[in-house]
Specification:
The chain contains 10 helices and 20 strands. By secondary structure, it is α/β, with parallel strands linked by helices. Bound molecules: 2-acetamido-2-deoxy-6-O-sulfo-beta-D-galactopyranose and calcium ion (CA).
């Protein structure tokens, strides 16, 4: 062997290891809850209303998407689609999960976690789950093993708020058990009042530290009444004020333990979902009351994640994705001052609608990718969606995707990484909570809305939740009319028909990848 041979072997090894290194970055997906397009500084929130320096820094050092979407305008369907890569409307039972709902994703349905594990990733979900726990027909066994759960569907570790912070019970789940549960004080969860004297938001309204406005008037915990009833499990109950700190604490522990392998962390913040309860140190940090204060709290979490990555020397080899699970909402059931203190803040930015709606505000949300040294700072107008993370990340990690899995998740990794000339989605179906048969269809500059019912919810986030009447088919040119105000369905019926037929064809095809 001569020098040339040695050089070629050396180069091959170097290239090989560089390839391996580059193709398996750590990935942290930070998913905000109910955060709208206009809720952060880098998307137009004014500093006098609230400051989000950490999220803004991600955008400044990374890629900020102007057409980044979540796939649904409520939580459960977006999360289902993010994990499975399937449009949620294809699957019954993917709407907002109730407290005692079983695991919506059962073992056997392939998830992003399953496939990343095949690439050698360690995987974890920390934060809000809201995808059900336990067997079909049984639901969660709160005092026993909560199986199946994340562990059975692709996550090595989980530390959860099992449902939502406004749904019972207010306990943490670590792996498949309620944390700190005392067997002498079993946890009971149900949807009927357990006894006549059980205090609720209705009977003990004067004792509440935050009053409800609609729903949310059942069992009281931490001075706040919730959706659903529960008793027991007192030692296991958390304080709403401490959730954000807990997500960061557990993430830091897990990252330190798993940093030798490539890792995938789904950091599922409960902020800014109701009840919006900032930690005491974040109170009054915005001009928007608690709704703004919990954005500042979430922004702090983002800063902590970056701090941890830097301290562990992982920042150059970690892709951070910041996104939201659905658009914004003002009053979502508690009198927390969100509407009263909104001022000139526009939670959905220039877009119409918000949470629960198929207008742009329902799903077009903050979307940032950050990977220092790899992603060139900039802004991208390409269309991407949280549903695409699965195929993009898994393909990037070199794992083949089974034919019948991740059926609506597209490989837009080059777009996420800001590669020159890379193209995002040609089209995207947006849905609401499902069940109502409402669809949004974005294709290029066009946006078609198909409402199965003659009403749409929450057209204006800055006002009380309402239903407003809508036409069955509406068409908008987002290039000229980003606020979806001028319906072109009548003046351009051909385009409306064409898009409606294409939307239907994608639904009928049963898959889009
Ligand atoms: C609704 C709740 C709302 C919120 C939502 C789920 C009422 C009146 N409204 O049913 O407060 O919990 O469900 O939000 O109960 S999500 O972001 O998790 O999808
Ligand atoms: Ca949500």
């Amino acid at each position: 062997m001569n020098l040339k041979h040695y050089l070629s072997i050396f180069c091959t090894v170097l290239l090989g290891s560089t390839y391996l290194f580059a193709s398996k970055p750590n990935v942290i997906v930070i998913m905000a809850d109910d955060m709208g397009y206009g809720d952060v500084g880098c998307y137009g929130a004014k500093p006098k209303n609230l400051k989000t320096p950490n999220i803004d820094r991600l955008a400044k050092e990374g890629l900020r998407f102007t057409s980044g979407y979540c796939s649904a305008s409520t939580c459960t369907p977006t999360r289902y689609s993010f994990l499975t890569g399937n449009y949620a409307f294809r699957r019954k039972g993917t709407g907002i999960a109730p407290p005692n709902g079983p695991s919506i994703i059962q073992p056997g349905e392939t998830t992003i976690g399953d496939l990343l594990k095949k690439a050698g990733y360690k995987t974890a979900v920390i934060g809000k789950w809201h995808l059900g726990l336990g067997e079909i027909g049984k639901g969660p066994d709160w005092n026993g093993q909560l199986k199946p759960g994340p562990k059975e569907i692709g996550f090595d570790y989980n530390f959860l708020l099992p449902t939502t912070n406004d749904r019972v019970p207010q306990v943490y789940v670590e792996n498949d058990r309620v944390l700190n549960l005392d067997s002498n004080d079993p946890l009971w969860v149900g949807n009927k009042k357990p006894s006549a004297e059980h205090p609720t938001g209705k009977t003990h309204r004067e004792t509440l530290k935050m009053d409800w406005s609609h729903g949310h008037n059942s069992t009281i915990h931490n001075g706040i009444s919730r959706i659903g009833f529960y008793t027991g499990g007192h030692a296991a109950r958390f304080r709403d004020e401490d959730l954000a700190d807990k997500w960061v604490e557990k993430s830091e522990e897990w990252i330190k333990k798993n940093k030798k392998d490539p890792f995938f962390l789904f950091f599922a913040s409960h902020d800014l979902h109701v009840p919006r309860i900032p930690h005491e140190r974040f109170r009054g940090t915005s001009a928007l009351s608690y709704r703004g204060d919990v954005i500042v709290q979430l922004d702090w979490c983002v800063g902590e994640i970056v701090r941890i990555l830097k301290e562990q020397g992982l920042d150059k080899n970690t892709l951070v994705v910041f996104c939201s699970d659905n658009g914004p909402v003002g009053d979502d059931g508690y009198q927390d001052g969100a509407l009263e203190y909104m001022g000139d803040h526009k939670p959905a930015g220039p877009y119409k609608g918000g949470k629960y709606s198929i207008f742009e505000g329902g799903t077009r949300t903050p979307f940032i990718t950050w990977w220092p040294g790899k992603i060139k700072p900039g802004v991208s107008d390409e269309v991407v969606c949280t549903i695409d993370l699965a195929t993009s990340l898994v393909t990037h990690a070199g794992v083949p995707i089974p034919q019948d899995s991740l059926i609506d998740s597209l490989n837009v990794m080059d777009v996420f990484l800001g590669q020159k000339g890379a193209k995002g989605r040609e089209h995207l179906i947006q849905q609401d909570n499902g069940g109502r048969g409402n669809f949004g269809f974005r294709k290029g500059k066009w946006k078609l809305l198909r409402h199965a019912k003659k009403s749409a919810r929450n057209i204006k986030v800055e006002e009380k939740l309402a239903t407003t009447s809508v036409d069955a088919i509406t068409l908008f040119n987002l290039e000229k009319d980003q606020g979806e105000t001028k319906n072109l369905a009548k003046s351009n019926p051909q385009m409306a028909e064409e898009l409606n037929a294409e939307l239907q064809a994608i639904i009928d095809a049963g898959r889009s990848r």
